[in-house]
Amino acid sequence: MTDVTTPAAKKDALRKEALARRTAMDELERIEKSLQLVDHSDTLPLPEGAVIAGFWPIRDEIDPRPLLDRLRQRGHRLSLPVMTGPSLIFRSLERDTELVSAGFGCREPGPDAMELRPDVLLMPLAGFDASGNRIGYGRAYYDTTISGLEKTGALLCIGIAFSLQEVDRVPTEAHDKPLHGILTEQGYRSFG
């Protein structure tokens, strides 16, 4: 029997609830709300010329690609994550970058793309709360990656999600890395 009182078990239950709400969204609504991210691109606290790591959407995640294109037009360099074991590396994303299948419908830059150190992570997530705590997908890839990147310089972590993925309170564990902000179709919110 599973102990539902542990932070991990509580997060798992919240993850399932938030993902069920996301999955229940109509496809057209998902597309429209993804496009609305672009409307709020000016509100993101991005350093000028920052290297920004986005993500390739899988399943029913919010689609950040139109937002990424807008940020590229504004002079930011883009990258996408590549799985390398317990953490991620980030490779350059240009208009002509060859993307390869990474499983689960995800695409990533191939091995010829230059590895970059991002200044900003635009991160997918399952759920988030009003304090900037996030629920990932349970493998701690981003938590591990953030820990490593923080050792090499400043890093801005922004979650990208639909507003309906917000939960009342995310229980935290020692390895959890909070968000600096969240961008939804409703706009950008900064966390103290």
Automatic annotation (TrEMBL):
InterPro entries: FTHF_cligase (IPR002698), FTHF_cligase-like_sf (IPR024185), NagB/RpiA_transferase-like (IPR037171). GO terms for biological process: folic acid-containing compound biosynthetic process; tetrahydrofolate interconversion. Substrate binds at E61. Its cofactor is Mg(2+). It catalyses: (6S)-5-formyl-5,6,7,8-tetrahydrofolate + ATP = (6R)-5,10-methenyltetrahydrofolate + ADP + phosphate. The keyword Ligase applies. One of its GO terms (molecular function) is 5-formyltetrahydrofolate cyclo-ligase activity. The keyword Nucleotide-binding applies. Its EC number is 6.3.3.2. ATP binds at K11, D12, A13, L14, R15, R134, I135, G136, Y137, G138, R139, A140, Y141, Y142. Belongs to the 5-formyltetrahydrofolate cyclo-ligase family. This is 5-formyltetrahydrofolate cyclo-ligase.
